[in-house]
Each structure stands twice: as C-alpha cells, then as structure tokens.
Design a protein that fits this description.
- By secondary structure, the protein is an alpha/beta fold.
- It folds into 2 domains: about 400 residues, 3-Layer(aba) Sandwich (Rossmann fold), CATH 3.40.50; about 100 residues, GMP Synthetase, Chain A, domain 3, CATH 3.30.300.
- The chain is built from 13 helices and 25 strands.
- It has a 9-stranded mixed sheet with strand order 2-1-11-10-12-13-14-15-16.
- The protein is globular.
- The N and C termini lie far apart (about 55 Å).
- About 45% of the residues are buried.
Length: about 500
C-alpha cells in the first residue's frame, strides 16, 4: 500500500507501549495513545463525510491532537492543508477560496466553509464540528489505498506576485524523503527528538516529526521554542532540529556548555542560512558541529552535510541518495565546478506542482524533471553544495519565507506611501529582517503607521521591523528598482 500512513502505523503498532510524545508537564502519550487518537479522528472525519482527495485546512497551535489530526487525514487519503497560525482573516480568505476545503479546523470563525474545533485533553473526541456529526463508538475506518503520486498535503508558500502558491506533496514525496533522512541521519531506536518547531511548517512536520514517527522513537513535543525550556529538556534528548534563530538564542544561555550537550548525538539546522559565525561559536561552546541541510516546501530536503564526515561551515552538503542536484545556467545546462549558477534539483522528493497553477508549474519544473529552486549556488568538484544567494527577492526571517511583493502591495495602498521597496538585511537573531524602504507622499512614514496598516492584513512575521524614508528609490536604466543597492546600503542596520 502506498499510503504513507500505512508505513507509519505499522511502526506504531510494533512499539505500542513506547513513549511517543513527551509533553513537558502534561501526561505523555505512548504510541498506543497516538494510534487511538488517530483512529478516533479518522472515524470523526469519515462520519463528517470527508472522502479521499478532499482538502482539510488546519490553522492550529501545535498540540498532540493536531498531530493526530494530520495522521488521520493521511489515513483517509485526505489532503492536509496546514496554515501558519499568524495568518489574518484577510489572508485566510484567499486560502479558503483557492483550496476549497471541505472542512476548516482552526482558531478563526468561518461561515463560508464547514468548520470544527480541536478538542484538547479529551480522550472521548478529537473534533468538535460546527454541524451535527454522529460518530458511533464502534465506528472504525480502514487505511485508504493511495498511489505514490496521490496528494497528501498542500503547503502554501508566498508568491512573487503576492499570490500564494500551493505546493502539492504526494504520499510518495513524503515517504521517500522520510526514509532517506532517517537513513542519512542514522536514526536509532534509542534516539529522542527535541522538536520545538511549529508543525504547520515543512520543517517541524515533514522533516522532524516524520523521522521520529517512522522509527517510533520518542519526541519531546514543545508547543514553541523557548530557550530556557529547551535547555531544561535537552538532557532527555539525543537529536535536535531547529532554525538558525534557535541556535543564536541558545548561544546566549550561560548553561550551554560541553557538559550540557555531551549526550547529544546531532544538532541539525535548516530553513534559513546558518552563518559561519554561529557555526563556529556553537562548536566552540558545545564541542558539536551543527549539521546543516538544504530544502524547501516544494522538495522537502535535497542535500545534507554528512553525519559521519566533515561538516563545513557555509555549505549544505551533498545530494541525498536517489536525488540529483545541479548548478545550471538559464537554459538548464550545468555550469563548471566552482562556477555560480542556479540550483536545480530532481528526485522522488520533488513536488507534484502548484495547486491550480499549471503555467507556474511549467515555469519552474523543466521537461527533464528538474525543479528550479530560485537559489544560486556553487558545486565543488566532489559535489558539495554551497548557497551563495538568491535570484528572487525572497526574505527568510526566523525560518519563515517572506516575499517582498506581498508586503509592498499593502504598503503602496497606504495614503502616506508613494512607493515602496521591501528588502531583507542581516539580523543577529532572525537571520534576515524585513525592512521597508518608502518614498513618502509627505513628511515621514513611521513604523507605527506601517504596523497599524499591515496588522490586519499580513501575518506578523511578514511585517517590517524597520522603515527607511527616502526621496526616491534607486533604479537601473530600465526603471527597475535596484534592491541589491538598497540591501548593500543598509546591510549594517542591525549590527
């Protein structure tokens, strides 16, 4: 059976009494508990009338019940559509209209689509539907047969035009990457994963959680990252995954020592570039070299530094087994070793395309199956990849992707703003910070005014952390705003 959940459930059933979720002050869940909750959620979704291929949109804080709901969607062949909890009602309107979910489970009230709330800490149910749904005690659901290319999830990424794109991931995509990472990172039955990542994101769910679930190993399941809490939980763990911001904040903690991390097998980092400074400071303070890897929503993970072998600061390692990575020119022809070009990837991990965007899919997946990542890189003679920049204007702040065009559209609607350019500049905590460079219609545009204008329309992580007022934006001879000039001019803003 190609349903990815069938593979996970087999592992769960063979480890029923093992701890699954360590919940830091709440009763822990065994794998038997997790199985029970998944079966219940699946029965509730089935009784509601959801059938394979239907989309279920989920906008929830991290919780064990949320994880069980995701697994139940897999079991039924439903398409799981997670959303950042920071998205506003205005942003949610687009996602609902585009995905057309049969059910929305979240914190916001919707009248345009059937909705449900997640019930926490109640062994009798998982979902509380806003429409009458009757579930008998003996209602059970079989694992629905799926093909490898059948959709398992849609992950929305910000679009360069302001319109978000739904990256379609299949059961085969999820399964192949989970197996590959488990092998690549040497997952052991004795491992305990410290997971402080959100699970609406590919990193926390499809990378971190999948590795633990596939091997039926315990996961310290923290609702969010808190440096003090992570340090308190660290003695129980052997593996930690995080974004660069996690590591920069932990470096500030005086309890971080070689002794405090001596039991750890590996620290893994991704979702945003790790600076060589952070890499070096972490090794100096803990004795561990962070294992950096490279991926994205459309492909999950493409490359990884070796578990056993040299990890070099500023590199993201080698292509995973069964995958191909090339650095190419504009026509897709590989450039010579050491030359900068576009990073393109191919393999069983590459997504099925963008939901209801065939033209965009055709633009970004070449006829030979290679996906054009939008990142610029260099391959060494032995195949080690280094990322040197981005061809797109993407800003990665705290591990979250922000496309400037989406922010600029809202800024330009402000009466105080004649035009704007949004850039990312280095930030010691977030990696990059979103900065608005604006030409005011009169006087000055303040950050408070921007906060008020954007607060109801854009998630907080997309909003500028600083505003710069200028008389005019720099442009080239074709009239295009030179954001590279702006980034260079303001690169020391937060240093």
């Amino acid at each position: 059976m190609s349903n990815f959940y069938a593979e996970l459930a087999l592992s769960f059933e063979g480890s029923a009494q093992r701890p699954a979720l360590l919940l830091n002050g709440q009763p822990d869940w065994s794998y038997a508990d997790l199985l029970d909750r998944v079966r219940l959620a699946a029965a509730e979704l089935d009784a509601f009338g959801a059938v394979a291929g239907d989309r279920v949109m989920v906008q929830l804080p991290k919780s064990p019940e949320n994880l069980a709901l995701y697994l139940a969607c897999l079991q039924l062949g439903l398409v799981y559509v997670p959303l950042n909890t920071a998205y506003t009602a205005s942003e949610l309107d687009y996602f609902v209209s585009d995905a057309e979910p049969v059910l929305y489970v979240g914190t916001q009230t919707r009248e345009d689509v059937p909705s449900a709330k997640l019930r926490l800490g109640n062994r009798g149910s998982v979902l509380e539907f806003m429409v009458p749904v009757q579930v008998s005690d003996d209602h059970t659901v079989a694992i629905v047969e799926r093909r490898p290319d059948d959709l398992a999830a849609i992950l929305y990424t910000s679009g360069t035009t302001g319109r978000s794109k739904g990256a379609m991931l299949s059961h085969g995509n999820l399964a192949s990457n989970a197996r590959s990472l488990s092998e690549q990172w040497g997952w052991e039955t004795s491992d305990v994963l410290l997971n402080a990542l959100p699970i609406f994101h590919v990193h926390g769910l499809f990378i971190a959680s999948h590795c633990a679930l596939l091997n039926a190993t315990p996961m310290i399941f923290l609702e969010k990252f808190d440096a003090e809490q992570v340090m308190a939980c660290l003695p129980q763990a052997t593996v930690m995954m995080g974004v660069p911001t996690f590591y920069t904040r932990l470096l500030m903690n005086t309890q971080l020592t070689p002794a405090a991390t001596a039991h750890m097998r590996v620290f893994i980092c991704g979702s945003a570039p790790l600076t060589e400074q952070t890499f070096g400071e972490w090794e100096e303070k803990t004795g561990h070299r962070i294992l950096e890897r490279y991926g994205m929503s459309e492909t999950i993970i493409n490359t990884s530094n070796p578990l056993n072998g040299e990890r070099i600061a500023g590199t993201v390692g080698y292509a995973l087994p069964g995958q191909q990575v090339r650095v190419a020119n504009e026509t897709g022809e590989p450039v010579t070793s050491g030359e900068v070009g576009m990073i393109e990837v191919a393999g069983p991990n590459v997504f099925q395309g963008y939901w209801r965007m065939p033209e965009k899919t055709a633009e970004e997946i070449r006829p030979d199956g290679f996906f054009i990542t939008g990142d610029l890189g260099v391959l060494s003679a032995d195949g080690r990849l280094s990322i040197v920049g981005r061809s797109k204007d993407l800003v990665i702040s705290g591990g979250y992707n922000v496309y400037p065009k989406e922010v600029e559209k809202v800024l330009d609607e402000m009466p105080e703003v004649a035009e704007s350019a949004v850039i990312g500049v280095p930030h010691p905590d977030f990696g990059e910070a979103v900065v608005a460079v604006v030409v005011p219609t009169a006087g000055e545009v303040t950050i408070d005014a921007i906060d008020r204008a954007l607060g109801e329309q854009l998630a907080r992580f997309k909003q500028p952390k600083h505003v710069i007022n200028v008389d005019e934006l720099p442009r080239n001879t074709m009239g295009k705003v030179q954001k590279n000039v702006l980034r260079q001019a303001h690169s020391a803003l937060f240093t």
